[in-house]
Amino acid sequence: MFGKSVKAAVAAAAAAGVLTGCGAAPKAGTAALVGDDRITVTELSETVRDWREQFRTDPVANEMRANPSNPAQQLGGDSESDLRGALTLLINFEVAEEVADEAGVEITEGRVDAALANLDRRGGAGSLTLATGLPRERTRDLARLVATQIAVMESFGADLTDQTNPATQRAGQRWNELFRRTADGMRIEVNPRYGTYDPGRFEINAVDQRLSRPDPGI
C-alpha cells in the first residue's frame, strides 16, 4: 500500500467544482492558484530546472524512473510533461493539507519523519523524490503527502501491512473520494498552457494543442 501511496501522490490527487482551464485564466506569471496560494511560473520553472540538474547525477533516481513497474515512473521525457508533473505535485501537496483537516487528522512532524524513513528504506528518499520529478529539497514535502495518506487511511480502518485486506482497500477508496471531494471544493485554477487539473486522477491532464494556446506573455 505504501507504493500505491507514492503512486497516488504523483499520478501523483477538472471536475465541475474546480476552475481549471475554463473561464478567465490566472494572471500572467501564474502557473496555478490553489485557494489563496499562488504558484508562479518562475517558481515552477526553477523547480524543474533544479530537478533536472540533480536528476542527471543520480543513477538510483534514473533507474527508478526507467523502470515501468516503479510507482515513481509517472512523468514523460519532454519539457512540458516535466513542468506538468511538477505542478501536479505542488498542487497535490496543498490539497493534501486540506484533506487532513477534513479527516480531522493531525500530521505531526513525527509522522512525516516516519514516512521519510520509509522512503529511505525503499531506495532513498532523495532519489525517490527525484524520480517523481521534484528536486531533493522537496523530499520532506513528498514525505508529508505520503504521511497524510497513511494517516487518513488508518483513520478509515486500513491495515497498511496487508494490502489485500478488504478494510485497507475500502480505506483506499475513501481516501480517493475524500481527496477528489476536497479538491472539488477548493479554488484551483491552472494556467491553460499546462492543461487542466483532474483530482480524480491526481494529475494535470495534458493540454489539447488543437484547442488551446499558451497564455500570451507567460
Automatic annotation (TrEMBL):
Entry protein name? SurA-like protein
This protein's record includes keyword Signal: yes
- Please list which residues make up the signal peptide: 1-24
Record region (Disordered): 59-79
The record, for InterPro entries, names: Trigger_fact/SurA_dom_sf
Keywords noted in UniProt? Signal
Has keyword Signal?
A: yes
Q: Which organism is it from?
A: Actinomadura hallensis
